[in-house]
Structure formats: structure tokens, C-alpha cells
Write a structure and sequence with these properties.
Chain lengths: 419, 297
């Protein structure tokens, strides 16, 4: 009696009362949380429908919140026991949740670590703790170079730049100035506040021969000759090559969207917004290779995890659901609906996906991508933003600014890891 | 046994008085005092919103006072106050004083001045943010460039950014202050002015000897009110610098923004609570000082 009533109430709440009446006998209901982004919600609805069709005894209820509140809501709800059974988290938040015992490791029989390591792109290994995976992504994001095809054509270029040097030279040809010498169109957008801090940290530092961090991202290691070269290259884009102005048109992506920037480095999540821009013809290329041909990329992802509030049959249902949302089928749906890249090479590296003119460069970038393990992403970003600001606004020497940034970031890491 | 019917009328009055008083008292205790107490307690703990709270003693305060960013932020907060309050008061008084004499389209003009106060601070901050951009999109810099003058880095400068953000904040608050000043001016009995005119006193003397002294309660109210406003400035700064909140290089960051970032992007709740306690203390001291200094002797 009670059970029928509960099921009925749950069904009514989701507006599916009629559909559920037939299968109500042994239903388990699990709750799933993610932040609101139209395409993500649509994709997840599709996944839930497929999952429920295959598992008629399980009902998945999705709740979503505006992105701005999401992190706080999740953080407040889970410790209070009000939270979901399966939750979507940014990979960089995972440490805090693991430490507070709010998420459960994925069972090694359904998710054997060896299999995950063999089947997922390598940056997913950041989710492994004490021999088990704590969480897994459906989709990942990486960086690539967006370029404006019209401006390329106008300047007589037929292919995107393959190396950093080519990028700078081509950028010079596509930078425009007004009579007073003010830049009105940039060759390349820059701005540490966007994706450039990832580009600098994981790509440029490595391309100039460095290794940005040691000890599993607990020790800052960019205060080196390579780091200095990377910083000088970056600030030189504005001061020497003069192909950019930081903060041009307020936001780099706005400048690119408005057709006032020839090249723009951004993440795969920008694709959707650009596809909707009328009159903009754009292409995507892999990030330019470094002076010695080194390629690198930065990847980030949202993971799904089972929270500590899932127990008993809800836990079993949650494991099944996790297994489905990290399957090949789910990843292909996610790619088609959201435009985020599959986390498994078996889906990503298919002929069709890897050679897709838009997704291809991002997917190929995953092969050599690194996922920074952040202790406090916004604070660590701020360190690099300030590093460049000191050079640009206060005339500090790159070497001094770099040393100061390394010390500041080490302080953040030290405070977090407690050493 | 306590029985209501056996009470005297006076005692009944007291009971009812307490029942009515209980509503705001309970409200304040639950909504204000309890969280305030919690925040003060939290400032001695370490908590990331997820794990358990651990006692940290005075660590948060020690960290705060040795943090160069805090002192920079502290300075910024007072610059907002020291520039913002006098400028907005003088400007709004001058406008109110003259507007009070204007008969032509008086209501319409007053509405125009009041309009910015009713506009959303967020929308206003974004419009000003675009005004301040370099060419090709910034209104001010396009104007400068079109007459051949060099551009001014309004927001992307450690020296110009704070005044550039303060200007729209002052402008936004003017409407309210003008209305209050005008109400204060209207409340001054005209007989004083008539007496002054009969005695042949000049307009400056009238201003200094009659208008300003009689406006004292209005001025006290506005000084305290606008000081608290500038000490708590947040929306304008945050919206005009969202990409680099309080930047560049913390040059525009007020204390409230630092608290916000510590709490909701670094999730260091204990440290944020310590900052809040410091802000609370500053607000308390400034308000008490102003009330004492400006009180009628």
C-alpha cells in the first residue's frame, strides 16, 4: 500500500503517473542532478528514456539548477542527506567530495580500473584514488584554434597555422589598425581570463620544454627557463608581435563572434554558440605545435559520481545508471546533442568523429591532452591572470613576475594539500 | 497555575505588549542575531562547506592580517568611501538646491534624476562597462579616437579602474540623495528665509547660517546611509570586472567582493567569515563615529 502510494506520488511529480502505473511493482527511484544547460538537459532526458526502457524497474528523476547556484546547492544538499544518488560534478571539485566522504568509489567489478585505463582517454586517470575510480565522465572538452575563414581568405591564407611561429606571422597579416594606430581587428585574441591560462599552463609551458607541475600537480614547476620562454612568448604577442590587445572588445569570444578576430583559442563548449552566429564562417584546427614540434592540449570534464546517500537497491540502480551513462551509446548521443567530446577513444576516434571538420581537431587533441588537477581553480587562474597583468600594466620583468606567480600558486597548493 | 483572567489590567497590557514585541524580536533573533553569532563562531573554524568544521582558533585572523591582498582590499574599500560619500553628497546637494528653485518641468526633471536609482545596478554596470572599452566598441574611446586623441585605459589600468567604477556607482545613488535633500529643504520653515531677506543677508550667509544647519538631520542620515553603501559596494565592481573580479591586480576589489570570492569560489568558509567579522566591525565603528561626530550638540 505504502509503496504503491510512494510510486504514485513520484510518478505524479514527474508527470508520468499513467506510464508508470503498469510497472509499479518493484520500482526503484534514483535521483540525478546536473546544472541547467538546455542541450545537456535534453541529452540527459534522452539517456534516461533509453535507460528506463532497458530497465523498467528503475525510475530516474533529473533535477537541474542554474549553473551559478549549482556548486553551492550540491555542496549544501549532499552533506545534509538531501542530495541526489548520482550527481554531476566538475572534475576539479572531486577531491573535496572524496575527502568529505560524500561520494562512493565505483565498484571495481563493474568498473575495473584496468578496463577504464584501457578504454578511456588518459586524462580520466585523474579520477582514480586508492585503486578505484571515484567518478567517470560521459564527455570531455579540449582546446583548439578557431579561425575566421573570411579573414583568412582575404589575407590569402588557405590553411590554418601548424606551428606557433606560423600563427604569429599569419596573425600579423590579419591585424588591422585605424589612422591613429589603434587596433581594430586582432590577428589572435588573448586574455588570461578566458581559456588562455590553460593554454599557457598545459600547452605553452610544455611546448617550450617544461613540465608545469610535479608530484601529481602538488608542486609548481614552471618557474624555469621553459616557463619564462612561454611567458615571454605570450606577453610578446601583444608587446612585440602586436597581433593582439588583451581585453579587446571586452571578451575574446565576443571579438571572434563579431568577426573582429582572425584566430581564437577556445574550448569545444564554444562550438554551439558559434554555430548559431549568422554570417560568421569559421573553421577549427588543432592547437599550433611548439618550436620543436611538441603538441599538447588541455582537457577538462564533468564527471558523474555516486553519492553516499545511495544505499541498498538504490545503490545497485545507481551503478547500473552509471554504467549506461558512460557507455559508447551514451557518449555518441552526448556528442550529437550537446557537442561535447566522447570520453572513450572507441567512440571519439571513429573515422567519422575524428575526421569531423568541427569536432575532429578537438578529438585528436584529446590524445595528447592533460587535465590539470586544481586545488582551487579560480584562485590558480587568478595567479596567472595577475602574472600577465603585472608585466603588461606595471612593467614588471617577466622573470620576476613568473617567480612571484610560482610562489603564490605554490602557497595555494601547499595550503590545500597541507604541506 | 498561571491564569490570564486573574491578571490585573496593567499586567494584561504587559503580556500583550510582549506578545506583539515578540514578533520582531523572534524575527531578529532567528534571521539576524543567530546567523551573526554563527558567522562569528565560524570565523574561528575551518570549513569548506562539505566536510566537518574544525577548530582553527585565531588562524583565520592571523592569515587575514598577514595577507597583502587584504590590506589592498581594505585600502580600496576606504577609497570608495572617502571619494564616494563626499562627492555624491556635494553633487546631490547642489542639484537638489537648484532643482528646488526650478519651477519649469520640475516633476519631469526630478524624475530624470531619480531614474538611475530605480535602474538595476547590474544592467547599468554592464552598459558603463561597454562605454569604457577600448576602440572599436567603447563609446568614450571611440570619441577620443575620432578627434585624434590617445585612448584612455579606463578599466584595464590599476590607477584608473577604481574611479571609473566609482563614477557610475555615485551617479546611481544620486537620485535617492536628491529626493531626500529636497524633502529636507522643503521642511525648513520659510519664515527663516523671510526674516533673512528682511535683514538683507546675502545668499551665501543664508546657505551657511540657515539652510545647512537646519539640514543637519538630513545630512547625518545621508552620510551614514551612503557610507554604509560605499563600504558595501559590490554589484558595480563585480559586474564591471566579471572576467577578473576586482582586478586588474586587485586594484578595484572591495571587501565584500573578497568575501564573496573566498566563500563561493574558494569555498573557504571560515576565512570568509573572518573577513565578514572584520567588515562588520568596520561598519559598526564608522557608523558610530559618524553618529557621534554629526550629532546635535
Amino acid at each position: 500500500m505504502t509503496r504503491t502510494f510512494t510510486t504514485w506520488a513520484a510518478g505524479a511529480a514527474t508527470g508520468l503517473a499513467g506510464l508508470l502505473a503498469g510497472t509499479a511493482a518493484n520500482a526503484v527511484e534514483i535521483e540525478y542532478w546536473q546544472y541547467f544547460f538546455d542541450a545537456r538537459v535534453q541529452a540527459m532526458e534522452q539517456l534516461i528514456d533509453n535507460f528506463e526502457a532497458a530497465n523498467p524497474d528503475i525510475t530516474v528523476t533529473m533535477t537541474h539548477f542554474p549553473y551559478a547556484d549549482y556548486r553551492t546547492k550540491v555542496a549544501a544538499a549532499i552533506p545534509a542527506g538531501e542530495g541526489p544518488d548520482v550527481v554531476q560534478l566538475f572534475y576539479g571539485w572531486l577531491n573535496d567530495y572524496v575527502e568529505a566522504d560524500l561520494i562512493q568509489p565505483l565498484p571495481t567489478d563493474t568498473f575495473p580500473p584496468e578496463r577504464i585505463e584501457a578504454e578511456f582517454f588518459p586524462m580520466v586517470q585523474a579520477m582514480k584514488m586508492d585503486g578505484a575510480y571515484m567518478a567517470l565522465p560521459t564527455a570531455v572538452r579540449s582546446l583548439a584554434l578557431f579561425y575566421n575563414e573570411r579573414l583568412f581568405e582575404e589575407a590569402g591564407f588557405t590553411a590554418p597555422p601548424a606551428t606557433l611561429d606560423e600563427m604569429v606571422e599569419m596573425g600579423k597579416a590579419m591585424t588591422k589598425r585605424d589612422g591613429a594606430g589603434n587596433i581594430t581587428q586582432v590577428g589572435l585574441t588573448t586574455g588570461m581570463t578566458g581559456q588562455d591560462h590553460h593554454w599557457w599552463r598545459e600547452v605553452l609551458v610544455r611546448q617550450f620544454g617544461g613540465e608545469p607541475y610535479l608530484d601529481n600537480y602538488q608542486t609548481v614547476n614552471y618557474n624555469t627557463e621553459a616557463g619564462l620562454k612561454a611567458l615571454e612568448f605570450y606577453t610578446g604577442l601583444e608587446s612585440d608581435a602586436q597581433i593582439t590587445v588583451s581585453g579587446f572588445m571586452d571578451e575574446a569570444q565576443a571579438a571572434f563572434k563579431a568577426g573582429r578576430a582572425a584566430m581564437h583559442i577556445d574550448g569545444s563548449f564554444r562550438i554551439g554558440a558559434l554555430q548559431d552566429t549568422r554570417g560568421l564562417e569559421w573553421g577549427v584546427a588543432e592547437l599550433p605545435a611548439g618550436p620543436d614540434g611538441t603538441r599538447s592540449n588541455y582537457a577538462s570534464y564533468w564527471v558523474n559520481a555516486i553519492t553516499s546517500s545511495a544505499t541498498g537497491e538504490e545503490y545497485d540502480a545507481a551503478v547500473k545508471f552509471m554504467d549506461y551513462v558512460t557507455s559508447d551509446e551514451a557518449m555518441q548521443i552526448w556528442l550529437e546533442v550537446v557537442g561535447e567530446l566522447p570520453a572513450r577513444p572507441s567512440v571519439g576516434m571513429t573515422e567519422a568523429n575524428a575526421n569531423d571538420p568541427v569536432y575532429g581537431p578537438f578529438i585528436r587533441g584529446l590524445d595528447y591532452a592533460h587535465a590539470t588537477i586544481f586545488a582551487d581553480e579560480s584562485a590558480q587562474r587568478q595567479v596567472l591572470v595577475d602574472m600577465v597583468s603585472r608585466v603588461e600594466l606595471q612593467g614588471q620583468s617577466p622573470a620576476e613576475s613568473l617567480a612571484q606567480a610560482a610562489a603564490e600558486e605554490q602557497r595555494i597548493l601547499g595550503g590545500y594539500y597541507g604541506n | 497555575m498561571f491564569s490570564y483572567s486573574r491578571l490585573t489590567i496593567r499586567q494584561k497590557h504587559i503580556v500583550w505588549a510582549w506578545i506583539f514585541l515578540a514578533v520582531p524580536t523572534v524575527f531578529y533573533v532567528v534571521i539576524r542575531f543567530y546567523p551573526t553569532g554563527q558567522a562569528i563562531a565560524l570565523s574561528f573554524m575551518e570549513w569548506n562547506l562539505l566536510g566537518t568544521k574544525t577548530w582553527a582558533g585565531l588562524d583565520n585572523y592571523a592569515k587575514l592580517f598577514s595577507d597583502p591582498v587584504f590590506w589592498q582590499v581594505f585600502r580600496n574599500t576606504f577609497v570608495y568611501l572617502i571619494l564616494g560619500t563626499p562627492i555624491s553628497l556635494v553633487v546631490s546637494f547642489v542639484i537638489a538646491y537648484h532643482l528646488d528653485r526650478v519651477r519649469f518641468m520640475h516633476g519631469f526633471l526630478r524624475m530624470l534624476y531619480f531614474l538611475p536609482f530605480m535602474t538595476s545596478a547590474v544592467a547599468m554596470a554592464w552598459v558603463w562597462r561597454w562605454f569604457y572599452q577600448p576602440v572599436p566598441i567603447g563609446l568614450f574611446n571611440n570619441a577620443l579616437a575620432s578627434v585624434g586623441l590617445p585612448q584612455i585605459a579606463f578599466l584595464n589600468s590599476t590607477t584608473n579602474a577604481l574611479p571609473a567604477i566609482l563614477a557610475p556607482a555615485v551617479w546611481a545613488g544620486l537620485g535617492f540623495q536628491i529626493i531626500i535633500f529636497m524633502a529636507g529643504l522643503r521642511a525648513i520653515p520659510t519664515s527663516y528665509y523671510e526674516a533673512a531677506r528682511i535683514d538683507g543677508v546675502g545668499p551665501w550667509t543664508v546657505l551657511w547660517e540657515i539652510t545647512l544647519p537646519l539640514l543637519r538631520p538630513t545630512i547625518v542620515f545621508l552620510v551614514v546611509f551612503s557610507s554604509i553603501g560605499f563600504l558595501r559596494i559590490f554589484d558595480h565592481v563585480f559586474n564591471m570586472t566579471t572576467n577578473n573580479p576586482g582586478g586588474p591586480l586587485n586594484s578595484t576589489k572591495p571587501l565584500v567582493l573578497m568575501i564573496y570570492q573566498t566563500a563561493f569560489s574558494s569555498f573557504d568558509m571560515g576565512y570568509a567569515a573572518a573577513q565578514t567579522v572584520v567588515l562588520f566591525t568596520i561598519l559598526l565603528i564608522v557608523s558610530l563615529l559618524q553618529l557621534r561626530l554629526l550629532r546635535d550638540r
